[in-house]
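ingest -> validate -> predict -> emit
validate: passed (alphabet ok, no gaps, 250 aa)
predict: started
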Amino acid sequence: MDEERQTVIAGKNPVMEALEAGVPLHKVFVRAGAHGMERWVARAREQDVPVQHVDVATLHHLVPGVRHQGIVAIAAAQPYASLDELVHGARQGGQCPMLVVLDGIEDPHNLGSILRTVDCVGAHGVIVPKRRSAGLSATVARTSAGASAHVRVARVTNIAQTIDTLKKEGLWVFGTVVEGHASMMGDVDLTVPLALVIGGEASGVSRLVRERCDALLRIPMAGKMQSLNASVAAAVLLYEAMRQRSKVYG
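emit:
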């Protein structure tokens, strides 16, 4: 928790100063039912920063012993990129885009591990939703072993709509599932411009997102366990994509 505290900003004036200065923020927490917070909430939303209303005990837990005045902000360890930067950044470098879309990964350790793998395989970025998702916190930076400083992460309002945008940009979108009708990952061409969708730890890829995918993939399983940890599944799929691409692109 000590490392997390370094990213916490507490109190009305400090939070407003951070918002006005454009400090990258992961989230702003406001005490539920508190009066006079409209200006802070409005400014946070102008900056595209998620606002969560919580009880006072949560605020006390975030900043023990600190006078928070009913508002606490969590600073992002790194600034977020735009979706356009992810898609066009790869193409400007003459590469075939490979992105990872995370549909509800809430464990910061999983996100950190995925960012590390993304950097190792040379993928071009990660997309996360603004809500019900881990963000670029200090824990993520630590777990990624520094990869979060090198991997572009875009934060979007709606994953399903973002997938529609990616498809319009010419990317193939492949969702990952553990059950139902799906192709084995080795049977699908992953050398195309693509986005791999990894579902959340508990419920996997959501129905709306699954319906928008071009195809669904499964990882072969030979043991009694029928699913992998989200970060492990992401690593397996990304290395399969890397293996295929190395034969085509060298």
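Confidence is low (pLDDT under 50) at residues 1-6.
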